[in-house]
Amino acid sequence: MTTLGTPDDALGELLARLRWTATSTDESRLGRGDRVAHDGDSVTLHQVLAGSVRVDRDGRAVEIAAGDLLLLTRGGAHTVTACDDAALFTVELRLDDGASAIAAALPEMLVTCCFLVREPLIAQLLELMREERGAGRPGAAAMTTALANVVAAAAIRAWIESGCADPSSWLVTLRDPHIARAVEAMHAEPGRHWSVEGLARLARSSRSSFSERFRATVGEPPLRYLARIRMDRAKELLGRERWSVGQTASVLGYCSEVAFSRAFRRHAGDSPSAWRQRALEAGAARPQSPSPSPSPSSLSGS
Questions:
Q1: Contact 60, 109 (CB under 8 A)
Q2: How far apart are CA 277 and CA 43, in angstroms?
Q3: Helix count (H) and strand count (E) of the chain?
Q4: Is the distance from CB of 156 to CB of 15 less than 8 angstroms?
Q5: Cβ proximity of 78 and 56 under 8 Å
Q6: Whether the predicted model's global pTM rises above the 0.70 cut
Q7: I want to staple 45 with a disulfide (CB 3.0 to 4.6 A). Which of 54, 91, 165, 289 is the partner?
Q8: Where does the HTH araC/xylS-type domain lie (predicted)?
C-alpha cells in the first residue's frame, strides 16, 4: 500500500488549497485567421484539439498547438486567433476564496507544452469533460468541476516540475525540502502559534539563516506570509464554510474577535462580518451548474 500525502509533500498541500468551480464550457472550430473574443473575469483553460492558435492578453501573446494547455490564471479579456484551421476546447473557472497567496505566485498565462502527450490520462479526463458538456446528464456540474480541478492541478504540477517557475517566486521553494517543510506546515496549521524559531527548527536551520533564506525566496518574512495564509483561510471559512466571525478567529489562533477583525480589515479593507455577508449573497446568486457557453462572436482576421 502506498501512503498518500507524505509529510514533505508541500506541493500536494498547496494544490489541495487551489479549488476551482467550473462555470461554463465551450468547443469551437476556427478557420485560419479567425478570431474569438473572450470577455469577463473568469479563469480560463484552453485546450487545443487541432491546429494552433495565438492567445493575446494585455499586450502579451503566446502560441499554443495541439496537445498544449493554457491556463489564464487571472482571467480577464483576451482574444484567440487561429494560426491555421484549429479546434479549441475552453473551460471557464472560478477560483474559490482562500487561495490568493498561492494563485498570485502563478504566471498570468501558464503554458504547458506537449502536456497531453506527457500526461495521456489527463487527456482522457479532458475528453470526459467534453462528453459531459453535451450529454445533459444529472450531476454534470459536479463532474465537470471535479475533473477541472484534477486537470488544473496536473497542469500546475507539470509547469513547476519542468522548471518554468520564476526563480523569484516562492513556488521554487517546493523543490527545497527545508523551506518547503516550513511552508507546508504553515498551510497545514495556520492557526498554530508559530514562531520564527519554531519554523526554523522545522527547516533544520538557524533562525537568522532561515529568516534570510525565506525572505529571499518567498519575498516577505515568514510571519507576514503566515498572516496572509490566515486571511486566505479566513475568507474560505467565512464564505464557503459559513463559520461565524468568532469561530474563525478562534481556529486561526487570534486571541480575540477584535484582534482578528482588526487584522482582517487591514488585509481585506472591510470587516469580516461585512465580507462574510457579501460572500454568502454572492454564493446564493451563483448558478449551480456550468452551462455550455454561447459561442463567442467570431471576427474575421485581418
A1: yes
A2: 24
A3: 12, 11
A4: yes
A5: yes
A6: no
A7: 91
A8: 180-278
